[in-house]
Amino acid sequence: MGLKTWLGLLSGKAKEISANRVGLVIVTSMISLIIAFMNSVARAWERCRGLPSLDISENESPIFIIGHWRSGTTLLHELLCCIYELRAPTTYQCFCPGHFLLTEGVATRLLRWVLPENRGIDKIRISWNSPQEDEFALLMMGAQSPYRRIAFPSLGNQLNGLDITELPLKSRRYWRQSLLMFVKRLMLRDKRRVVLKSPSHTARLSNLLSLFPGAKFIFISRDPMDMIPSAIKLWKHLDFVHGLNSKGLTDYRRYALTLFLDVETAYLRDKELLSEKELVELRYEDLISGPAETLEKIMLQLDLGGLHIDFAAFDSVLASISENIPERYELDTDERRYIAEATSSYCRRYGYAH
Fold it and tell me: Can you tell me whether residue 191 is helix, strand or coil?
């Protein structure tokens, strides 16, 4: 993050920082000064290139992959990026959204050692060039995001920025401006149509559609008995690795289901705005059993003709599926009942029987 964003994240929370995280805060503060300088240089360069006035036509509007956390959005993202005419923002672009146009080529070669071999939550390999979630770009740019809670998980759910319609007007405008500028930067680097992936976007359909009138949406569902426990594992991992405090106890099951229900409410409210050629819904289980057929269904329903699959890359992604068999979770009776009650309408809608 740049200095302004970093200080905004820390504002009023200094007492919440755990002693074993002070070193991380100091190092990050120093790096944020460098990032702020790089961002300012990049802004001047972008103005010279005319980036702020760049127009995005309806046919260039992004394709959004949406769905709840751990529903299979990452796998679908990687498969869609096997299509020659589509591309995704990379890990470097999402974590350095303000200056990647100037620094990506050099930095990704010099900083290969920084990244772990896999994501930590699972065995999915990661590199600076891997498709990445654009929610991190919004977070780094200072837009409101529910991911801000990862820094201070003991302070509660902190869901500001999940449903953009609930933000104050100034914050909503800055959020929209941030996403628009990020997409413009991606297009300046590569003219191919962008595929964005963020579970948080599932609660933002109306705002995304008004920002990108030609946008397409792909919603993926998954059996909640696998999805919710996996999401709980995700939040525990992120908080442990990246959190700046370790005070208090988070009820992760309650948090995961609160997030699930809030996203569901916003998604069901806004999905009626989309036609059959703008939104396709599919199941993770069907994607796993028939990935090629699922991609064909997506391209047909969303009227994405003229696309060509890189079958070598496609086969490589499929090979990674067999190497990373989704984890199965042993749930006791109370856990199954709690999840089943919270997700009952979702299960009926997508054909999951419990």
Answer: coil
Domain parsing of the chain, residue ranges: 57-350
The pLDDT, as a whole number, for residue 322 is 61
Nearest to 244 by CA among 45, 83, 14, 11: 14
CA distance 169 to 155: 24
- For residues 269 and 267, what is the distance between their CA atoms, to the nearest angstrom? 5
CATH 3.40.50.300 fits 57-350, yes or no: yes
Instruction: Determine phi and psi for 219, rounding to 5 degrees.
Output: -100, 130
Residue closest to 21 by CA, chosen among 154, 143, 136, 129? 154
Angle (CA) 79-280-182 rounded to 5° is: 60
Q: For residue range 122-170, what is the model confidence (pLDDT) as tens digits?
A: 767 788 889 999 999 999 999 999 999 999 998 888 999 999 999 999 9
Phi-psi sector, 72: left (phi>0), alpha (psi -120 to 50), beta: left
Tell me the C-alpha distance between 139 and 135, whole Å: 6
Residue 230: exposure state from Cβ atoms within 10 A (0-12, 13-18, ≥19): buried
Strand 193-197 versus strand 279-283 pairing type:
unpaired
Residue pLDDT, tens place only, 268-288 = 999 999 999 999 999 999 999
Tokens found for residue 30: 């120093």
